[in-house]
């Protein structure tokens, strides 16, 4: 079955460490996105990419980095510069079509300990 | 820049009662509008979307939404809720870029169902 796979489901990080969240899709979608979800704040866009080797900052990119070396993969690195990284992270993808539905992964819950 | 407002943070409804979740948007052109549902600790699932044509759109699980341009609203409705409808609901507006859609979400409405 086609879909988006995020791993791991739960992740614990010590302060000062970088950590990478994985996102893989087999839907052959062009665009991929990373969102951060905090209680009461909805989903906020971190980074997005519409083509391999190209990506743009979203609304809250500070302290995060991404890469898009393959169409299927869009990993997110949470760096030590991110001051409040504890959150639920969601990856999504869309096909190239106006008004297309976004497909979401099951999310990764990151906790700083 | 586009924005979405969901004024109700939390709504409690009795099972079998009707439901309306409010959504207001700000967008310069004719918007693409979406409603997604999220169960705890899960990803989001599309309920329905509007991008042109009939202003009353039907979705999955018996949900519908009405686009009202004059009120910049896209409220979600269901005639009779079921306990399984308890979840968080997000309204979103799409912003096209290079043929793709970048979504801006509201803050969500958490729905609780009581017996």
Number of helices of chain A: 0
Q: What is the 3D form of chain B?
A: globular
Q: Helix/strand-derived class of chain B?
A: mainly beta
- Find the structural class of chain A using helix and strand composition: mainly beta
Instruction: Specify Rg of chain A, calculated over alpha carbons.
Output: 13 Å
- Provide the helix percentage of chain B: under 10%
Summed over residues and divided by their number, the pLDDT of chain B gives a mean of 93
Coarse shape of chain A: globular
Tell me about the biggest sheet of chain A?
Answer: 7 strands, mixed
| First-last Cα distance of chain B | 41 Å
- Beta-strand content estimate of chain B: over 45%
User: Distance between the terminal alpha carbons of chain A, to the nearest Å?
Assistant: 36 Å
Question: Overview of this structure, please?
Answer:
By secondary structure, chain A is mainly β. Chain A is 0% helix and 51% strand. In chain A, strands 2, 4, 5, 6, 9, 10 and 11 form a 7-stranded mixed beta sheet that branches. In chain A, strands 1-3-8-7 form a 4-stranded antiparallel beta sheet, with no helix packed on it. In chain A, a hairpin with a 3-residue loop joins strand 4 (31-38) and strand 5. The termini of chain A are far apart. The model of chain A has no long low-confidence stretch (mean pLDDT 94). Chain B is an all-beta fold. In chain B, the strands form 3 sheets. In chain B, strands 2, 5, 6, 10, 11 and 12 form a 6-stranded mixed beta sheet that branches. In chain B, strands 3-9-8-7 form a 4-stranded antiparallel beta sheet, with no helix packed on it. Chain B has a two-stranded antiparallel ribbon with strand order 1-4. Chain B is globular. The model of chain B has no long low-confidence stretch (mean pLDDT 93). The chains are: A mainly beta (113), B mainly beta (115). Chains A and B meet through strand 4, strand 5 and strand 9 of A and strand 5, strand 6, strand 10 and strand 11 of B.
């Amino acid at each position: 079955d086609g879909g988006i796979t995020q791993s791991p489901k739960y992740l614990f990080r010590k302060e000062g460490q970088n950590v990478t969240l994985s996102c893989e899709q087999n839907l052959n979608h062009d665009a991929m996105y990373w969102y951060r979800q905090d209680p009461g704040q909805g989903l906020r866009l971190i980074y997005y990419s519409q083509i391999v080797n190209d990506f743009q900052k979203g609304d809250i990119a500070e302290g995060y980095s991404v890469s898009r070396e393959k169409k299927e993969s869009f990993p997110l690195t949470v760096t030590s510069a991110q001051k409040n990284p504890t959150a639920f992270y969601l990856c999504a993808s869309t096909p190239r079509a106006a008004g297309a539905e976004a497909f979401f992964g099951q999310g990764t819950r990151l906790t700083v300990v | 820049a586009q924005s979405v407002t969901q004024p109700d943070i939390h709504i409690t409804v009795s099972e079998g009662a009707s439901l309306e979740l409010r959504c207001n948007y700000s967008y310069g052109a004719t918007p693409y509008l979406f409603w997604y549902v999220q169960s705890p600790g899960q990803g989001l699932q599309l309920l329905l979307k509007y991008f042109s044509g009939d202003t009353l759109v039907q979705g999955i699980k018996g949900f519908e939404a009405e686009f009202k341009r004059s009120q910049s609203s896209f409220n979600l409705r269901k005639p009779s809720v079921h306990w399984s409808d308890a979840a968080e609901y997000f309204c979103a507006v799409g912003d096209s870029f290079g043929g793709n859609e970048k979504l801006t979400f509201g803050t969500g409405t958490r729905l609780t169902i009581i017996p």
